[in-house]
Amino acid sequence: MADLSGKVAVITGAASGIGLAGVETFVEAGAKVIAADIQDEKGRALETRFGTDTVRYIHCDVLDLAELEALMEGAVSHFGKIDVVWNNAGSGGTPADIEELDEEGYDKTMDLLLKQVFFGTKYAVAHMKDSGGSIINTSSISALEAGWAPITYSVAKIGVAHFSRIAAAQVAKYKIRVNAILPGFIATSIFGASLGMSREVADQMAEMLAQQGGSMQPAGRTGKGKDIAEMAAFLASDASEFITGSQFTVDGGITVGPRHSWDESAGGPVLEALGITPEQAEQMAEAMKAQQE
């Protein structure tokens, strides 16, 4: 496990999903954490669970830049400094495809998923310039290829990944590192919430995904929030001090290639084009072999 002893971290979207796993993992690694979210009941529960000497909850709507700036100032006020900022807050955004997309849905999604990462980083740098630090931004495998998320979400997430590289270059002079994590299929409430489900129902859907989604990927199980949190903890730690401007795909191998590349029972593109199942192909091969004998 990463060693975060003595570090102060700010995590947005901290009350559930990947962010919650981040709070748990960072505390276990020795950090003090400012947990930011708009889910006040869950946020206050974190203070009760860990104690306010270790975790402080701050209500922060990352769409409100004044609140985002105040979040960083609050971290310094509570714990005296900021060593790590994890810009993690987000949602599925507008589900509209390019033909149905409207300006309002586009703006809200881009503001939530990309604009707040720009300004979360900006406000973090103001408090890290003298001592250095690590900034981590949550992107997505939807930044790599089509089919994983709606178009606006996907474009915002590739923006996050590339922003992290450019920002890393600009703030390197302050010994501040900036990296992006690209999570794969992680069982969180974001999927249900993007479908308009209540938070409670979305949480239940996340549990179902955790139990049933393993067959989709080479790792054989659905990703957990802790899988992403462990990568973030590494990037927050001094063990990663030579790493900046990089993108880390944490996806159980789901983007290594089409299913047939890792699942022998799946048919390849040629068989699919011919309408032949793997079983039928095997039978044909056996028949041809028998004829040759």
TrEMBL record:
Signal peptide bounds: none
Keyword annotations: Lipid metabolism, NAD, Oxidoreductase, Steroid metabolism
Pfam entry (one): adh_short_C2
Molecular function per GO: oxidoreductase activity
Top-rank taxon, per record: Bacteria
GO terms of biological process kind: steroid metabolic process
Family membership noted in the UniProt record: Belongs to the short-chain dehydrogenases/reductases (SDR) family.
Name of this chain's protein: Short chain dehydrogenase/reductase family oxidoreductase
Source taxonomy: Bacteria, Pseudomonadati, Pseudomonadota, Alphaproteobacteria, Hyphomonadales
